[in-house]
Predict the structure.
Amino acid sequence: MSCHSIRPLLPARAEELTVFEARARAEHVATCTRCATEAAAYSRLGQALAVMANLEVEPADGTLEEVLVAIGRRRTAVTNPRVLAAAGASGALVATVVVARAVHHRRQTRRHPVRRRPVSSRLRLPSLPVPTPALARAK
Amino acid sequence: MEVDRELVEAAQAGDRWALEELVRRTHRSVYTCALRLVGNPDDAADVTQDVYLRVVRKLGGFRHEASFSTWLNRVTTNVAMSTLKRRARRFAVEGAAVPAETRDPAPEPSERAEAVALARRLELLVAGLPEGQRQVLVLRDVYGQSTEEVANAMGLTPGAVKVRLFRARERLKAELEAAEGGQVVALAGRRRATGRRSR
């Protein structure tokens, strides 16, 4: 294959190529010094980029402390007895209201049962005018 | 970023000291990853804080199927991408993500010195890439995520990731050659780097 065809494959890692592409690149690079140099450059670039994962940037002063305070605040919010008590009281109140409404609804239903219409009346289709010669003339 | 399994398990069990120690050991790595993705020191600090708040919430569900650092990297990636989408604004790349100083978490063997030196120079050039290209390159080539993982994190198709990756590598190599006035081959040295990759 020509350099023009192989060039798009040079920056790719081996695992990013199909078997056909990998073979074509290897065969071409073995015979073309220029593309071999390019491929080697990309390979070493990849290795250097991988090394970057082990380089760390020092954050600004106070970043660590802010993180520790934030997670401490969150943990405190979850484990603080006052917060837990407030959450429990809110939950109990909500549960009471829900139960009271359910009981009230049940009593109302017993006193005034809802009369349900028969299925046939609910599903009845609107009556359409029967096409007759007189109706056609009227239109 | 060295994290003992025992330390993670202690933090999972609710040991407050263990959790804080976990943050102390990993916060530089998280901040660095965030900075490379969002390209802005202030936002990287915000992302770092959000990452640990999410870690506190999700740590109980971590099953040690992957290494903790890999899991933490994924959390960082997701939080950084969410932040970028939420704010929906572009950061000025030039000069924004240039770190004042980089440091190695552990002493490097002498045979890796050249690769480390090149990586330090690359840090500046990577920061100058267009945002979309930079994020793809950082996730794929620096942190070793698969093309599919990068596509999921960024909401792209794998094909779009490959296109951006190709352009980013091509551009980075050209800029490195221009900056150094020579071939990457000569700069990188003859020795192969032995950098650990997390897959």
The longest helix of chain A spans residues 81-111.
